[in-house]
Amino acid sequence: MSEEIRNENGELEAKPQESKHFIEREIDKDLAEGVYDHVQTRFPPEPNGYLHIGHAKSIILNSGLAKEYGGKFNLRFDDTNPMKEKTEFVDAIKRDVEWLGAEFENRVYFASDYFDIMYEKAELLINKGLAFVDDLTAEQITEFRGDFTTPGKESPNRNRSIEENLQLFRDMKAGKYEDGTLTLRAKIDMASPNLNMRDPIIYRVAHMHHHNTGDKWCIYPMYDFAHPIEDAVEGITHSICTLEFEDHRPLYDWVVQHCDFENPPRQIEFAKLYLTNVVTGKRYIKKLVEDGVVDGWDDPRLVTIAALRRRGYTPESIRMFVELSGISKANSSSDYSLLEYCIREDLKLKDKRMMAVIDPIKLVIDNYPEGQTEMLTVPNNLENETLGNREVPFSRELYIERDDFMIDPPKKYKRLYVGNEVRLMSAYFVKAESYETDADGNVTVVHCTYDPETKSGSGFEGRKVKGTIHWVNAPTAGQVTVRLYEQLIDEEKGKLNEDGSLNFNPNSLTTVTNCMVEPELMDVKPYDSFQFVRNGFFCVDSKDSTEGHPVYNRVVGLKSSFKLPAQN
Description:
Blueprint: E1 4-6, E2 12-14, H1 22-32, E3 40-43, H2 53-68, E4 72-77, H3 87-99, E5 108-110, H4 115-127, E6 131-134, H5 138-145, H6 162-173, E7 183-186, E8 201-205, E9 219-221, H7 223-234, E10 238-242, H8 249-258, E11 266-270, E12 274-275, H9 282-290, H10 305-311, H11 315-325, E13 333-334, H12 336-347, E14 353-354, E15 356-357, E16 360-365, E17 373-379, E18 389-395, E19 397-401, E20 421-424, E21 429-437, E22 443-451, E23 468-469, E24 472-473, E25 478-485, E26 509-517, E27 529-532, E28 536-540, E29 551-556
Parallel strand pairs: 3-4, 4-5, 10-11, 12-13, 14-27, 16-22, 20-23, 25-29
Antiparallel strand pairs: 1-2, 6-7, 7-8, 8-9, 15-26, 16-19, 17-18, 19-24, 20-21, 21-22, 25-26, 27-28, 28-29
């Protein structure tokens, strides 16, 4: 029953309901027509690599639908190809799904849990005359299949007797045949306009050790046969998958129908999440890891979920990104700047705004009393007063950013140069008087004077300054390493070179080892995040930080030209 609100004339009218995407509308229709009386979804990754931002969309969508409709959500590993699968990937995927907040409780399953059932269903199809053992080579099968303009040709083995097929299939299972010699194929329609229906392979011989079943099996089911059986056995109602499986849907339906499953699941496809100028393909990422271009699947320049977490992205920001990207049937790309927008929006009210000087030079206040230190009250976040204040030490010698002082400044430069006055954030006005340089002419020390009447918060109104700069107290400063990131791929030149190789950005990582920070930024733990005033949001690296020696990853800068599109 819709809520009622009063319009501008004081009349009651129905409150418009939030619009639903097409998958929700299909589920509503199924429930209303009694096709299903509940909703159960799943996320079925293959454990052959780490998950990336595109998988996050599927996780959030599937788990969100289950929660929205009061149903259940399963995590299931599609481990039908042991050649590429590792326990490391299984563990990483569990961490990622849990971190994103998908609630699967104790429902963690493996395709390999159902290998016995799959084998039984394969024999069932043979007994129905709907599957046969074939000894054509892979090349011959491809040749016989035809193409979009040419019908396929039936295998000469297609009409073997049920008894012969059963015996051959059982011999395959018993290990009597070498890899690549025999396959089990569904008997469907070699003239079908859908190539997936032209007697697809449903089992192959593969003498491989499996991470879950060991050496029990030497035949393994193909994905298109295994997946619908897994869904049906688990009682999945809506098998939500990406658009490239749309052409596989007739085969999905054929399997669950002829394997005699009651209340079979329904497959619905949605468009993948594409992100501009990033590397998401597992094959590419694996090569980057193996070639040492990145320091692992969780290198913060990647967009694997583990990498985003390590860099400092939050589950809330990724959920916002998925929501703003939308759910549709049409393929499209989201700009990386949208992802950056989402993390800024999430962190801007959560994080303390601390002072950190990334490229430091000394600032000496010549008229400040030597040996004196005072504590200044600094707000933790001007946009969120609930984060309170902190006390920051201030003395005669400070660090400031190198680009906050110039010898020959351009017009409209509002920071320090000889004769100019600025405010030190939450402190005093200071005026640059002179400077020192090294043998190469680089500024090393700026000398200034301060006006004790101008203390921040004292109510001073005597004069104004145009610039405010941040600083760190030199005697109490901590020294940390910071990592500054740009896109791994050169955005201007595009993703691929002419030879098909990835076009890397040589400036994707800049490491600074002498960043000076407030004392509080030394006593931190992995994943703690802060806004470094004027420099961006930074997160404590979970891999390379040690006690007393934190490493900070820049999550995102503070400024962006990105704006959300206007709402209709």
